[in-house]
Amino acid sequence: MTRVYNFSAGPAALPEPVLRQAAEEMLDWQGAGMSVMEMSHRGPEFMSIHAQAQADLRRLLAIPANYKVLFMQGGAIAENAIVPMNMMRGHAGADYIDTGAWSQRSIAEARKYGRINVAASSADTQYTTIPPRERWQLDPQAAYVHICSNETIGGVQYHWTPGVGDVPLVADVSSDILSRPLDVSKYGLLYGGAQKNIGPAGLTIVIVREDLLGKAHPLTPDAFNYALQAEADSMLNTPPTYAIYVAGLVFQWLQAQGGLAAMAERNRAKAALLYDYLDSTAFYRAPVAPDCRSLMNVPFKLHDPALDAAFLKGAEAAGLKQLKGHRIVGGMRASIYNAMPVEGVQALVAYMKDFEQRHG
Ligand SMILES: *Cc1c(COP(=O)(O)O)cnc(C)c1O
Description:
By secondary structure, the protein is of the alpha/beta class. The protein has two domains: about 15-255, Aspartate Aminotransferase, domain 2, CATH 3.40.640.10; about 260-360, Aspartate Aminotransferase, domain 1. About 35% of the residues lie in helices and about 15% in strands. It has helices at about 15-25, 45-60, 75-85, 100-110, 225-230, 240-255, 260-280, 310-315, 340-360, and strands at about 5, 65-70, 95-100, 115-120, 145-150, 150, 155, 170, 190-195, 205-210, 285, 295-300, 320, 330-335. The protein is globular and about 60 Å long. The structure holds pyridoxal-5'-phosphate (PLP). Pyridoxal-5'-phosphate (PLP) binds near residues 148, 172 and 175.
């Protein structure tokens, strides 16, 4: 068996010890005589897996007691609609910050539910920056202010938490949740799909302040109603049981790594290896402004796009997979989430240096 270094933006690499444990427990979870996939979600075995996963996530992120953790389905794209359905009522609209492809997707969906004010945009820099807070034109009556903490496609990331007064701050954290400590109390709501930095696709994590519950639009489907899901402990419908189980293993793996402060340290070091090299040569180029660069998704370009195909072919042969950039930005993208070991980034940089020597 050969495991490659998988730089996919998502679904993405998982920690190998987690996959091993899941494999060991596949046919018989801890003496239950069945796989987690085969268990009733209301049985004592799965209820314990569910409760443990929730408790571990709370501990990792130090989630305050007045926040609910919901395990939902539909991914971040469903949340783009679920957030306004649950939060817009009684307000004329909401503020959104446009930092690239994923915030635009959120904006387009939210427009179906109310008046959306794009309070700031980094379109003027081709989405290579985060608009500075002093340029945001916020509406104090807005239902909430929405940001995307890490633009998975463009590779820009907030390295600061915006202050937005009494209006709840909502963040799509799909691609950087659990990559670093986060002050949950600064947010009204956080959401993200699991398949980037947590676990398998199918699980969506929502962390919501309790006082924001109970205001959903009457046509909100019950399965997407935060208050009803919170009341039912995310069991209003059948939750994505196996994805929750694997996410729970990832939470335990993160604890064993030293928690989120230790992960942040490792992620900073990994990203620095790659960005330092990119900045040291004219052969490659990292388009994002240095103070806004994502530590999770590193887009880069070869100076000559005619070499892209050869670069990717050689990378594949070297066991460095899924480096092709998103079609809307082109070039390359290395996603280096928690599960990517430093050795993977070292192998990538060594390959890039070698490729430069042969084609520079
Ligand atoms: C991947 C991603 C999405 C889309 O997630 P789905 O699970 O496909 O709905 C939305 N926002 C961000 C920031 C992402 O990285």
